[in-house]
Design a protein that fits this description.
CATH superfamily of the largest domain: Nucleoside phosphorylase/phosphoribosyltransferase catalytic domain
Structural class: alpha/beta
CATH architecture of the largest domain: 3-Layer(aba) Sandwich
Helix content: 25-40%
Number of helices: 18
Largest sheet: 7 strands, mixed
Shape: globular
Strand content: 15-25%
Number of domains: 4
């Protein structure tokens, strides 16, 4: 196998030898996928026979990465230059002027297991360990990842395979342990805009005296993730050491999972699953439970909203998922309690990081106009966690949680957690807004969660923290002509117009039955 040394001379296009390449940071955001850029007529590209979408092993003095090749056919890259996307640059920890070696990687044996699974073969624990090990090491291309996700979708995974996959994902990264017991956690399988109960449950549970180290995700296709919303109130990018200090001091935290190395293969897979819009039951269970187990949790409450436009569409599917979560949880040392909830409409009023944060703060501060549905859902989940810990008698959990909220203990604990994570701040408000009103008198009979979430996202959320949507008319609201239905918020006029164009061209975001 031929290898070529790429040497860089900062600020110069002169080459010291026939194999020298100028290493450049291209500044292109390819999200989590490392990408390398080379010109079609680059002598190294031609000599190695590299083609577009080839996988390339990039070796640097600090380590190595696998990157997908994009071939450049115009002059924005010189023939002897090699460029790295932002993801590749961060992974390689390179600098302009560093040397790298480029070569074809060795074939991945684990891809043979993926192909076998596509044809229906039952895989063993070692097979999943090899596959997940290669995925966590970023050896798989997006095409390879898509094949693995498709191979496991539907009913292709037996129970023991889901357990094997979960265990392999736990072992792919760090695992936390705590000098306390029990360690509580919660999760929602998703599909509901504005459902930001975590930011209420964590301080209630921690104020009670239990330990709840919560790692949460950022949004990819939705207007906000828990980490996005929390970030409008306090820093969330905590390392493992920082996270441990916060939890030891306050009993809980709300940190971004991407800043810690817990089940790292899951983060790689989620990006492709969402792009494909495939979320197989077995992989969903492995994804959720591997994160919980790796974080050191012992007891987990999982919320499964059911609705026509939620992620889980039927009570039958919710029951099947609940049973699988409990069974796999026991196999990896977790006591799991799944709860089925209403997924027919958004929770709270705000959809978007800052707007959701305002809802959370209004509940924590016991304000009179706080969204009651968000409050009640959080109290139910917090109560179930308290009861699951065996610290509160059955049937008394929600009442205990409500008292912790009512007397201000939850708000004080939340503020303390924010301060421990780097400092509390009030969320901002977007400069531009547009009110969408009812066209006639009637009753709101249904809300399309997906379309409403899409409208909120098109305003610029979650990257634009104050962008999003405020819902004024939940299901069963009786509306008069021109009565407010929802308000779009954006940080620029262009983003607001973009979202409005979507709203105007999509019927059925809110279904109003005329009266």
């Amino acid at each position: 196998m031929n290898k070529h040394i790429a040497t860089a001379l900062p600020g110069s296009s002169k080459r010291s030898n026939s194999h020298s390449l100028l290493l450049r940071r291209i500044g292109i955001d390819t999200y989590q996928e490392p990408v390398i850029y080379m010109r079609q007529d680059c002598h190294v590209c031609r000599s190695e026979g590299f083609e577009a979408q080839s996988r390339i092993l990039v070796k640097h003095q600090s380590g190595s990465i696998f990157a997908t090749l994009n071939v450049v056919k115009n002059d924005w890259l010189l023939p002897g230059d090699v460029g790295l996307s932002e993801a590749a640059w961060q992974m390689l920890k390179a600098a302009e002027g560093d040397s790298v070696e480029l070569s074809h990687p060795l074939p991945l044996a684990s891809l043979g297991d993926v192909r076998a699974k596509l044809y229906g073969k039952h895989l063993e624990p070692d097979d999943y360990r090899h596959i997940i090990g290669d995925i966590a090491a970023r050896r798989y291309s997006d095409v390879d990842l898509s094949a693995f996700i498709a191979a496991c979708a539907g009913d292709r995974m037996a129970l023991d395979e889901v357990i094997s996959l979960t265990k392999a994902m736990i072992a792919s990264g760090d695992e936390l342990s705590w000098n306390a017991a029990p360690i509580m956690d919660k999760h929602c399988v998703g599909g509901l805009p504005g459902n930001r109960t975590t930011l209420l449950v964590v301080p209630i549970v921690a104020a009670f005296g239990l330990t709840m180290p919560k790692t949460s995700s950022r949004a990819i296709t939705s207007p906000a993730g828990t980490a996005d919303t929390m970030e409008t109130l306090a820093p969330v990018s905590l390392g493992l050491g920082e996270m441990r200090k916060v939890v030891e001091r306050e009993g809980g935290c709300v940190a971004w999972g991407g800043s810690v190395n817990l089940s790292p293969a899951d983060d790689v897979l989620i990006r492709i699953e969402r792009a494909l819009d495939i979320d197989g039951e077995g992989q969903l269970v492995a994804s959720v439970l591997s994160k919980k187990a790796a974080a050191g949790s012992t007891h987990v409450v999982i919320d499964i909203p059911v609705g026509e436009t939620a992620k889980v569409r039927s009570f039958e599917a919710a029951g099947s998922l609940s049973k699988l979560l409990s069974t796999v949880g026991r196999a990896v040392g977790l006591e799991v309690q799944a709860t089925i909830s209403d997924g027919s409409q958004p929770v709270g009023r705000g959809i978007g990081p800052a707007l959701e944060a305002k809802d959370v703060l209004s509940v924590l501060r016991n304000e009179s106009n706080a969204p009651e549905d968000l409050r009640e859902r959080a109290l139910i989940l917090a109560g179930q966690i308290l009861e699951l810990s065996r610290s509160v008698p059955q049937g008394q959990g929600s009442r205990t949680a409500a008292q912790i909220l009512a007397d201000g203990c939850a708000w004080r604990k939340f503020y303390a957690i924010c301060e421990a994570q780097g400092g509390f701040r009030e969320p901002g408000r977007a400069e531009f807004s547009h009110l969408v009103s009812a066209p006639f008198k009637g009753v709101v009979t249904a809300i399309d969660n997906r379309k409403l979430g899409r409208a909120a996202k098109l305003t610029g959320a979650p990257k634009a923290k104050t962008a999003g949507l405020e819902l004024h008319a939940p299901i069963s609201t009786v509306v008069e002509p021109e009565q407010p239905l929802y308000t779009l918020h954006a940080e620029t006029r262009g983003e607001l117009e973009y979202a409005l164009e979507y709203v105007r061209s999509n019927d059925g975001i809110l279904n109003i039955q005329e009266t």
